[in-house]
Amino acid sequence: MLYIEIGDITRFDSVEKLVACAGPDPQVEQSGDQVSEKGISKNANQGLRARRSIAAASRPNA
Predict the structure, then answer these.
(1) What pLDDT does 62 receive?
(2) What DSSP string describes 5-60?
């Protein structure tokens, strides 16, 4: 599933860029010395986000 949606991972310069494409990557805001996390970015591949949601919803409770 990941390979079909993302393709060749060697096209990414860094792990951070791969995670940003595949998601979920946290949104971080920085101002001076203060750093705050704003939750998960919704900029990732929409197909992967949908499949992850379906997989999570269909997982039986442990």
Answers:
(1) 54
(2) HH--GGG-SSHHHHHHHHS--EEEEEETTEEEEEEE-S-S-HHHHHHHHHHHHHSP
Q: Which residues contact 44 (CB under 8 A, 6 or more apart)?
A: 20, 21, 22, 23, 24, 25
Residue 3 and residue 62: Cα distance in Å, rounded? 28
H or E element in which residue 4 lies: helix 2-6
Q: Exposed, middle or buried, 51 (CB in 10 Å: 0-12/13-18/19+)?
A: middle
Please give the single-letter amino acid code of residue 48: L
Q: Tell me what the pLDDT averaged over the chain comes to.
A: 75
HSE at residue 13, side-chain half, CA atoms within 13 A, is 0
